[in-house]
Write a structure and sequence with these properties.
The complex is a heterodimer of chains A (about 80) and B (about 400). By secondary structure, chain A is mainly α. Chain A has 3 helices and no strands. Chain A has 2 domains: about 45 residues; about 40 residues, no CATH class. In chain B, helix 2 runs antiparallel to helix 11 and helix 2 crosses helix 13. In chain B, about 35% of the residues are buried. Classes of the chains: A mainly alpha (about 80), B alpha+beta (about 400).
Chain lengths: ~80, ~400
Amino acid sequence: MIKEFSILVSIVLLLTGFVFVHYLAHNGISSQKMLSSVANITEISSPSLSVAYYEPRVLFYEEVLNPAYPQMQAMNKMDLVYEQ
Amino acid sequence: MNNNAFLHFLTLLLFKQKGKHIGAVLISVIIIFLLSSVLFISSSLQSTLLGTLESQSDFTVSRVQAGKAINTPSDWLDKVLEINGVSQVSPRVYGRYFFAPREESFLVVGVDLFDEQSSKEFQSLIKGLDLKSFLSTDSMLVGEGVKAFLSEHYYKEHFSFKTPEGSFKKVKIHQTLPLQANLIANDMIIMPIELAREIFGLGEDEITDITFNVPNDAEWDNIIGKLHLLFYDVRVVEKREIRKAYENLYNYKGGLFLILYLVAMVTFMLILYQRYSMVYSTERKEIGILRAVGWSIKDILKLKFYETTVVVLISFVLGVILAYLYVFIWDAPLLSQIFLGGANLPNHVEFVPVLEFGLLGSIFLFYAIPFFAAVLIPAWKIAVTPPKEAML
């Protein structure tokens, strides 16, 4: 095995190790706790989508409108993100 | 052949011909990076939202008129409470408040702070919050996005809401909601329920909708039937439906990105196949010389296989690592806007790291198998020709 190859493999292994350490050490519980608290208080768990005025902000509870063609079903972020 | 000598020859060949591999590695890293980033974002959002959904009530009931949700009478609360098996019935008052000059909107949510459960949660959410001082004046808690937007418009301490009656309601910005809650609370304003009613012009006997729990899952369908018998103009939304939507969140079977990925992948494989199958004189010569010095077809295929394995593994690992850094350390600038939108208040979300090893394995297989085929088939075609012909 030549030296350059060993260096390349070491760098890749080092980066992989860093990712694993970050993954194992990350405290996702506090974020989840905060989100659950907000959802508990407000009873709303919909993601805070940055949507235009005619798109639904709260999933399932708001209607979708297309301001240009009211009869036409509007394409919105939910359609892209959520499978209908 | 001696393994050490083979390994030395393989690595030497890889670095001597780095110009040949660098293009394939770069394109592979870009494709793996994009696909992994999208999947990391969607898995993180899905896992976080499913966790959050646990805190939400099992059912939501609202009144409908001409297919649209309208304000629900508050006396429905007592009627729902009378149904056997129902618990934790509570009213919801919420809606979007439009900041007309810029067409931006906030989600205003009214909370019953005299409810013991809510007030406890409220105090655990905001450490050091003095509920008495919060309730003594018209106050609100705002999300990070709202706070930034209001500060930009010089509403540093107060904001004046315009009510449907045309009057202004001045509300104090008491505190900001934690940054970690941005995923659901970036554009949110939380205030006492009476204040929210006043801002939206709701009457004393009106609420937006009703939420309740049914602890026994087997009763769920029965409860829906009872609700439809009790009210004729009702819409019932179950937690099951919302869960299903979250579970299908950017489903990789039907996603737009998968189609784009497939198109990119097929194009990449075509380029790769064409590149390796083209009658490169150097490539043919190299295989011909190896055959002439006594290498068998198996040895040549072994060399090409290991060469490709190194290229595939390094590209895949680099692509995934870059995607991890981009999503979970730099919070996916630009790409996160595709998921969270950019039409209203800008949202900065910290993605919780979620690695789905099964999914990563599938990506690897989808990527590696065509790659191997694109390299090994042309190499085999050259290797089976007599060395003299191959070197011509």
